[in-house]
Every structure is written in structure tokens, then in C-alpha cells.
Amino acid sequence: MTTPQQQWPIFDGHNDTLLRLYKPMEGDPPRSFFQRSSYGHIDFPRAKDGGFGGGFFAVYVPPHPSTVKGPPGYNMIVTETGYEIPSFDEVEYEYALDFAMGMVAQLFQWETESRGQLQVVKNAAELNRCLRKGIMAAVLHFEGAEMIDPDFHSLEVFYKTGLRSLGPVWSRSNKFAHGVPFKFPHSPDTGPGLTELGQELIKACNQLGIMVDLAHMNQKGFWDVAELTNAPLVVTHSAAHMLCPSTRNLTNEQIDAIGQTKGVIGINFNVRDLRADGKTELDTPLLETVRHINYLVRRIGIDHVAFGSDFDGTNVSNELGDVAGLPKLIDLLEEEGYDKVSLRKLTHRNWVRVLKQTWKG
Ligand SMILES: [Zn+2]
């Protein structure tokens, strides 16, 4: 019998596991990445059970504690038709740099502790080798570029350390761009696009071969990047606005542009961004995820769709549960008629292709 890992390692577009272990949520017991737990979505043993071959490990800097008005997530305002979350204060460079350093160090500590079972991959050859050998492949990703200085010195240093993917913004503003505030129902057109410095950042990423992630970017910013970049357009964790009109989701025009540049969309497993009513209902059927995958595949083709779970950063359906539940999603996709070639593309080949094209060396 082959395990899902051997059949098709799942390489995933986004997780917040570094944050969940670096700053545990209230009620989380102290735990190690290598110890099986029932808290959070990803740890090493559960990842193995689920056939998780690796993915983008996000470094995300939460709002500064002094600016947080209540427990995270509790500030959502329910409106007559959906929800909105009030905008977040910008975070300072020094705080962001300090926080990011700690999280990057944690990832490298995991690499050491894993004794060869987890590798921070820096090029396509390393990524391919890890997926083939069943070594967990971690791509170092920054979600929001607040730790990058205007001269890009820290970008240069983080690149040398292993940074290979960067989202200029999370859902707040910074010196590079403006993220989408969380709202439903609402268009992703929520404000101005890239700043001048943001344009320079895109060019610097292109030059170094760092993938630019457009998740959390507003619509104007998206098109600004589309005009500037020489790489395929990529959104690591999002879904179709036509099926679920949240600000975090992509319009048909954006989806088409991603297809045309031979880019990739990682499907977010966040129930709030999948359901037509935008509700955070954990009993949402896993089929909602398949509905978005089908929509994108019909629109731009199987080569441009992948997974972008947002594990440890969001609410996924109880049916999926956590990373160990991934084979259930694969089973549903098989029932839906996706053949082995298509499943290989959805589970890892599309990510590998786009990274190979974007990275240098
Ligand atoms: Zn995110």
C-alpha cells in the first residue's frame, strides 16, 4: 500500500505554524513541532499522516500588543449582510524586524532538530529532492514586508538566509502597499495600490528571484504588480470572489490574469472565504473547497490551481480538521473526477513549476 506521501506529496501554499508555536494562543500548552498534539493544525507527526510534503511557512508579524484593542478575532463586526473587521494599525520596522528574526530562527531550529527530515529549501533542485525523498520542504515566506527597510538591506540579508517568497502586505497598510481590510460582501477594490517604494520592492524581488505573493493585496495593488513584475502572478491563499464575495478573494479578471501569466492560486481552506454567505461555520462541508477548485480549474485550467490551506492561521472545516485530514480532500477530488495527472498538479507540481520559473539558481 502506498501512503499519500509516496503517491503525491502535498506542497501547500500557506501556513502560520511558525506563529502558532512562536506565540502560542491563549490556552495552548507548551509543545514542540515534533510532538503530536491536538492543538493547532500542523505538527510533524500529523503532517506525515496527511501526506504533507511541505509548503510555504509564513513569518507574520501580529499587531503590536499596545495597539490591540481586544483578543484577536473578537473585534469582528457582524453587519446585516456579513461582517467587517476594523482596520489594523501599522507596525514599526524595529518591532517587525525583531519579531521576524525570532520566527526565522525558530524555523532553522526546527531544521536542525529534525536531523534531516525538514529542510528550508532555497532552489528548485532542493525542493524536488525533498518532495521525492519525503523530506519536509519548507519555503521561508514573509507575510507583510514590515521587517524590510527602505534600502532593502534586510531583504538582501534575509534572501541570503533563505527568504524565497514575500507578500508585500498583510491586511493592513505599510510603506510598500495597502492590504485589503476583511469585509463581506465587498469588492477587493479597497484603496490605493503600491507606493513608489512598493514598486521598488517588486523590482528588487524580481532581481533576487523572490516570489511575490499577492494574497492580502488590494485590487489596485494587484494590478500595479501585474504591470511591473516579470514573474508569473501568484496568490498563495485565496479563493473565487464570484462564489464568495469577500475582499480576500479574487475577481474573474484577476483570476484570468493569473492564468495568462502561467501563475498559481493556492485555494484557502478558511471557511469564511469559501462559503457563499461568508459565515465562519465550522460544519461547512469540505465540498465547498472543491467547489472553488472546480470553478478555477474550469476558468483558467488545471495548471494554475493548487492548495493554500492557511493552516494554523484560520478556521478550517471540522470535516478536514487539520493537516492529517488532507487525504479526505484528495478522496473528494478523485470522486469529482480528477485523474492522477491532475492530482499531481494540484498537490505539488504547479507550485514546483511556478517556483522554478521565479527563483534564480
Ligand atoms: Zn493570510
How much strand content do the residues show?
5-15%
Assembly form of the protein: single chain
**The number of domains:** 1
Bound ligands, named by name, code or SMILES: zinc ion
List segments where confidence is low: pLDDT < 50 over at least 5 consecutive residues. none
Largest sheet: 6 strands, parallel
Secondary-structure map with pairings?
Blueprint lengths: L3 H4 L2 E6 L1 H6 L21 H7 L1 E8 L17 E2 L4 E2 L8 H21 L4 E3 L3 H10 L2 E8 L9 H9 L1 E5 L15 E2 L11 H13 L2 E2 L6 H10 L5 E5 L13 H9 L3 E4 L19 H14 L4 E3 L18 H10 L4 H19 L3
Parallel strand pairs: 1-2, 2-6, 5-6, 6-7, 7-9, 10-11, 11-12
Antiparallel strand pairs: 3-4, 4-8
The site of zinc ion has 6 residues, from loops.
How would you sum up this structure, described in words?
With 361 residues, the protein is an alpha/beta fold. It has one domain: Alpha-Beta Barrel (TIM Barrel). Helices cover 37% and strands 14% of the residues. The protein has helices at 4-7, 17-22, 44-50, 93-113, 124-133, 153-161, 196-208, 219-228, 252-260, 287-300, 326-335, 340-358; strands spanning 10-15, 52-59, 77-78, 83-84, 118-120, 136-143, 163-167, 183-184, 211-212, 234-238, 264-267, 305-307. The strands form three sheets. Strands 1, 2, 5, 6, 7 and 9 form a six-stranded parallel sheet that branches. A three-stranded antiparallel sheet has the order 3-4-8, with no helix packed on it. The chain has a three-stranded parallel sheet with strand order 10-11-12. Strand 6, helix 6 and strand 7 (163-167) form a beta-alpha-beta unit. The chain is globular. The protein starts with a helix and ends with a helix. Bound molecules: zinc ion. Residues 143, 215-216, 237, 310, 313 line the site of zinc ion.
